[in-house]
Amino acid sequence: MRIVDVREETMPISSPIRNAFIDFSKMTLSVVAVVTDVVRDGRPVVGYGFNSNGRYAQGAIIRERIIPRVLEADPESLLDPERDNIDPGRVWDAMMTNEKPGGHGERSVAVGTVDMAVWDAVAKIEQKPLFRLLAERFGGGDAANPKVFVYAAGGYYHPGKGVQGLTDEMRSYFDRGYSVVKAKIGGVPLADDLHRIEAVLDMLEPHQRLAVDANGRFDQATALEYAHALSAYDLFWYEEPVDPLDFEAQAAVAAVYDKSIATGENLFSMQDARNLIRYGGLRRETDWLQFDCALSYGLVEYLRTLDMLEENGWSRSRCIPHGGHQMSLSIAAGLGLGGNESYPDLFQPFGGFPDGVEVRDGFITMPEYPGIGFEGKADLFAVMRAIGEPSLATCS
Question: CA-CA distance, 65 to 75, in Å (whole number)?
């Protein structure tokens, strides 16, 4: 058993939308295929992965550093000594060979993308859904819960889209079964943002909620100004008010905003996450953590982060990852997280769920595909198969 090839291709996910900091007109991502010599149903087992939106493709790092290390490693050194399978932890160690501690920047995205594909392959080799494999290995005796809370992320600033367009968008999410939606703030003056927020709040039914996301746009003074203004509303959370590494400013916001804060999507390691817990002023019972495995060295590192949270008295149920991808859905179902972000309409074909999966009362039920389940989303799997199994993709 061995990994015989790792392939990366850069794909566009461009869109005219913007948040408070960036526009997505030139956004890209990396799609990775990890090809093994294991055969199931007459086909080689191929694991797939991609990085989350908001970080560009990592092709150069993947091709120049990560792939050679994996392929040059002794194949036996990448195997799980207790199972007839590949060991994601050992592959992770190979990917990080000759990398210095710290510097948790773009390489964490590159490693996280390949790590996703490795876990997809591992679960397929065992012929199990990844979420069930994770519950067996790391669930602490708890069975996997295939029912996962999801919220609809949207509400971006879009050319020509006014308040009516925003409320129409949010209504479409509620009509599809979501109970929580999210809108961007910080891209227009405070008064205009409050007008947008109030328009959405005015349309909510009693069981529906709105979250807002500043994408780290504000300095401390502006974040506090928004915190005071937002305190008048019943929001699901106030997300990423300040630079993700400005823990002092984060703590200052938490000191005056007594409702839920969410942050963490732009922290790229267990050490970064630990510093947030130590110094960011967050509250275990109130606030939400959005660490995204695809941006932060993958599931191998995410498991370390969950251990760190437990050591610091945090429940993993306070984690609702960023990214809207099926990998985090599998982690949420298998490891008992609080839910997952979802992009019903954006960043296609990478956002969304497998075909036929519906949102009901804010939850989805995981399908039973082996691996992460990319094969269940036809438009996405067509893109992936063209990289991992090009001859079959051509035939189909």
Answer: 17
Predicted pLDDT at 394: 55
Write the pLDDT tens digit of every residue in 68-78: 999 999 999 99
Give me the domains of the chain, ranges plus CATH numbers: 3-127+380-395 (3.30.390.10), 137-375 (3.20.20.120)
Residue ranges of the chain whose pLDDT lies below 70: 393-396
pTM above 0.70, yes or no: yes
Residue 395's pLDDT is what? 53
Residues in the chain: 396
Active-site residue list = 184, 322
Residues 289 and 319: beta-carbon distance below 8 Å: yes
> For residue 35, what are the β-bridge partners?
5, 46
